[in-house]
Design a protein that fits this description.
The complex is a heterodimer of chains A (674) and B (156).
Chain A (H helix, E strand, L loop, with lengths): L5 E9 L3 H11 L3 E2 L15 H24 L8 H4 L2 E4 H9 L1 H35 L17 E9 L4 H11 L6 E9 L2 E9 L3 H10 L13 H27 L5 H21 L8 E9 H15 L2 E5 L21 H7 L10 H16 L2 H17 L5 H24 L6 H10 L19 H29 L3 H22 L3 H7 L7 H21 L7 H13 L1 H9 L2 H22 L4 H43 L17 E4 L3
Helix pairs in contact in A: 2-5, 2-9, 5-8, 12-14, 12-22, 12-23, 13-14, 15-22, 16-17, 16-22, 16-23, 17-19, 19-20, 22-23
Chain B lengths: L2 H38 L4 H9 L3 H14 L13 H38 L4 H27 L4
Helix pairs in contact in B: 1-2, 1-3, 1-4, 2-4, 3-4, 3-5, 4-5
The chains are: A alpha+beta (674), B mainly alpha (156).
Chain lengths: 674, 156
């Protein structure tokens, strides 16, 4: 359990080496640079904003092109891709590809241009389809919609409100102009409470017919084309076909550039890394001939870095003292087992420098509790195999992901252990299979629990869970005590830590032999008289110390006692914290019983071949579901026990993560060659 | 068939029905929020799916209590309930997870919606976002515990 010690160093070198120094720092990736406001008039900064935004723009373009490429020429990686990590590229290949980055960018632009053309084609198709939609009601017409009539006739093409048939239309005109007989009406279609009609009459009757139609609400169509609707539709359809052909050509053109994917990835990362370098470059204070850098380096790398800087660039490197008001960034360093649990700590908040790193102790409890909550040997073995295989298959996996899977690997081991302790192996699958398919009639369970069956003695396990909880919480209080001692605060240690230990241990010792406890747990404790006396003495001693000392920052004795009394009231929070560990029992039972339900449902079809097929189907699907939901449950609730109960006793995070200045690669990892 | 049997079965049914209703409700509202986030940022699928699932556990707890009850009252195992009072005790023992399951899953669903909002805005804060719904679940776990302890310890 350790927080990496940080050394503040300053580097001063000649201006001509500026970019080379930054590149070296970037590839070493061990230094977090401090960017401060300048207060010295003689120092200045280089304006790199434009160069940087150009690089970022290029990186962005390459990213977009890659996304387009993935759409039209998907890489066959599937789910595993998220585990595979970055592609490894050798230094020579990288340099070669970077040398051609202009060519690559031309391809990138070409891809984006083609993608833009595709979306234009799609837009045209959309508008064509809309036009066809507008034409559809008029398809019955064999003249253009704008047709007004011939030399001797007049035509009215348009729509009237409501649903009208031809007879009604004739009646409508006859009512207004009874003597008119040379009229031909045709209903083309009706839609949305409107009827599309065409009316033909003699040119001399034009006005009369028009007024009759107008009275009925006749209107000519808003958009009318000069073509016969059926012809116009055919033309539009032809256009759609053409656009589709063009799209598939463009898609093929994009897909044909799939071979350039590697180069594009390199180009994107190359520009991103450069942009990052220029961002830093813009923050470095410099004078006429030299420039200055200041930053944090893990103490163990400080000498190596200093040597590189001095030898290669003739820089002056100084080891600086940390100032009081500075926030030192935090990096964690733990053993192989515990480092896998750092992610749990990091998502709560890293410890500040000078505080204790609880990762090691937390990882032990995490391991222990996770297994208890899942407590099924079958599920545990599946987790172990799955995580181990995943980590083995993808050695280039991203570091955080690898740690996460390794954490589940260890939790799987713990789950297997607890599964055998409580006699759970895919629930009771061994018994069920033996009974259903092999006619077993002997005593069950066949797989006997090494400890006891929690479903038969839930009370006993509950007591154990609470005991584990008390140990967990006491460990948390202990870490707080360690921090007090490290700061040399003996008074605080006694009054805030030791007093609480005395008070709580005394209370527990007084509770154990009582009738209430015997009634609940069925366990009776007979303590010798001296132990009963001791328990009373330490409880009262602890109580008095807390009452008098916990408000010691106050001069006013009245207030001080009141604060002490309030702190003693905090014992209720201890009670609720301890009861919270009952989830160890509840979640453990949940996994086991649901697994039994699945086995029982599977065995309902009876023995024989058919029964076996049903059983396997139900078992596989059910186990997958139960495992998914219970692994999630165990993960969430183990986290909760750490965050709320354990950390609540001593830990408040508040550290800043160490973020060294490094390459900003998203796709590739450069492999150095010797 | 005794009245006790009817009451005991009623309790068993209630625990799955009510806790399941609560979970359906909670997972339902959380699912709508999750779908909204995925429509904007498909990369957050796994995270919001986990948050959506959190209120689903109450339904499982309810099922669990039903199963334990059924295996005690002679439907899936154990001896039939002979008298009304014993049946009533089974009914009462089922109530904690039935009622608390219903309400805690609903509220957990609401908290999940808010936590999905956290993931949408700050995907790296997933660890904290996951914790808020888990707080609500504590009470469902306590209710589950009391239901199980009561059912397994009803004198027969």
């Amino acid at each position: 359990m350790a927080i990496v010690k940080m050394q503040k160093i300053s580097i001063c070198a000649h201006k001509s080496n500026r970019k080379a120094v930054l590149e070296t720092l970037q590839s070493m990736g061990v230094m977090q640079l401090i960017t401060e406001e300048l207060d010295d008039q003689e120092l200045m900064r280089m304006d790199t904003a434009e160069a940087r935004s150009n690089f970022l723009k290029n990186a962005d373009l390459a990213d977009q092109a890659l996304a387009v490429l993935n759409q039209y020429a998907p890489e066959n990686k599937g789910f595993a891709a998220s585990l595979a990590g970055k592609t490894e590229v050798s230094r020579t290949d990288y340099s070669k590809s970077v040398g051609e980055h202009k060519k690559t960018m031309a391809v990138v632009r070409q891809v984006l241009k083609e993608e833009k053309a595709i979306s234009e084609c799609r837009g045209i198709i959309q508008s064509d389809e809309n036009q066809i939609g507008a034409l559809t009601p008029w398809l019955g017409l064999d003249v253009p919609m704008t047709f007004q009539g011939t030399y001797k006739t007049a035509a009215f093409i348009g729509s009237v409100p409501g649903t009208v048939d031809e007879a009604q239309l004739y009646a409508l005109i006859r009512d207004k102009e009874p003597e008119l007989t040379t009229v031909s009406c045709e209903v083309l279609s009706s839609q949305n409470d409107a009827t599309n009609i065409s009316v033909l009459c003699l040119d001399k009757d034009k006005d009369k017919v028009e007024s009759a139609l107008r009275a009925a609400g006749f209107a000519r169509p808003a958009q009318a084309s000069a073509k016969v609707p059926a012809e116009a539709k055919a033309e539009l359809e032809k256009d759609i076909e053409e656009q589709k052909k063009q799209i598939s050509q463009l898609e093929a053109a994009i897909a044909s550039k799939a071979g350039k994917r590697g180069d594009m990835e390199i180009a994107a990362d190359f520009y991103r890394t450069r942009a990052e370098k220029y961002r830093m470059l813009g923050t470095i204070p410099q004078s006429k001939r030299v420039f200055f850098l200041e930053g944090w380096v893990p103490a163990e790398s400080a000498d190596r870095l200093a040597k590189v800087m001095e030898d290669r660039f003739g820089a002056v490197v100084g080891m600086e003292e940390t100032r009081e008001d500075e926030v030192v960034p935090t990096a964690l360093h733990n053993n192989k087992f515990s480092s896998n649990f750092e992610g749990v700590l990091a998502s709560y908040g890293l410890p500040a420098q000078g505080k204790a790193d609880p990762t090691f102790i937390m990882s032990l409890f995490y391991f222990f509790f996770f297994g208890m909550m899942l407590s099924d040997a079958g599920y545990g073995i599946l987790m172990v195999i799955g995580c181990f295989a995943a980590v083995r298959m993808f050695p280039k996996m991203e570091e955080g992901m690898k740690k996460f899977l390794n954490m589940f690997f260890w939790c799987g081991i713990s789950t297997t252990f607890w599964g055998f302790m409580f006699g759970g192996f895919f629930g009771d699958v061994i018994d069920v299979v033996a009974k259903t398919f092999f006619g077993y009639t002997g005593p069950t369970p066949i797989l006997k629990p090494l400890w006891f069956n929690p479903l038969e003695q839930p009370m006993q396990l509950l007591i154990w869970c609470l005991l584990f909880g008390v140990i967990h919480l006491f460990a948390g209080l202990g870490i707080k005590g360690y921090e007090y001692l490290k700061q040399g605060d003996a008074v605080g240690f006694v009054s805030d830590i030791v007093a609480w230990y005395m008070f709580l241990v005394g209370l527990i010792l007084m509770l154990l032999p009582s009738d209430i406890f015997a009634g609940i747990s069925g366990m009776t404790f007979q303590f010798p008289a001296w132990l009963n006396l001791v328990s009373k003495v330490i409880t009262i001693a602890g109580l008095v110390i807390i009452l008098l000392m916990s408000g010691r920052a106050n001069k006013n004795w009245g207030l001080r006692i009141a604060l002490g009394a309030y702190d003693i009231y905090g014992v209720t929070s201890w009670l609720s914290d301890v009861l919270s560990y009952s989830r160890l029992l509840a979640l453990g039972l949940a996994t086991g019983v649901i697994a039994q339900v699945i086995n029982m449902m599977g065995s309902m079809a009876g023995g024989g071949v058919f029964g076996a097929i049903v059983f396997i189907l139900v078992f596989v699907v059910g186990t997958a579901l139960n495992m998914a939901i219970n692994v999630l449950g165990a993960y969430v609730h183990t986290n909760r026990l750490q965050y709320v109960e354990f950390f609540g006793k001593f830990y408040d995070g508040g550290g800043e993560a160490f973020t060294p200045f490094q390459t900003a690669n998203k796709y590739i990892e450069i492999k150095e060659e010797n | 068939m005794s009245m006790g049997m009817v009451l005991a079965l009623f309790g068993a049914v209630l625990s799955t029905a009510l806790a399941g209703m609560g979970s359906a409700w909670g997972v339902g509202v959380a699912g709508r929020a999750a779908a909204g986030v995925v429509s904007e940022d498909p990369n957050q699928f796994a995270k919001v799916l986990i948050l959506q699932l959190l209120p689903g556990t109450q339904g499982i707890y309810g099922l669990l209590v039903t199963f334990i009850t059924l295996s005690q009252i002679g439907i899936l195992g154990g001896a039939q309930v002979a008298d009304t009072n014993t049946g009533l005790m089974y009914l009462l023992a089922c109530l904690p997870i039935a009622i608390v399951g219903l309400f805690s899953a609903y509220h957990q669903g609401m908290v999940s919606v808010a936590s999905i909002g956290i993931v949408a805005k700050k995907p790296d804060q997933f660890g904290k976002a996951m914790l808020f719904p888990a707080m609500v679940e504590t009470y469902a776990i306590l209710a589950l515990l009391i239901s199980i302890l009561s059912i397994t310890n009803i004198p027969r």
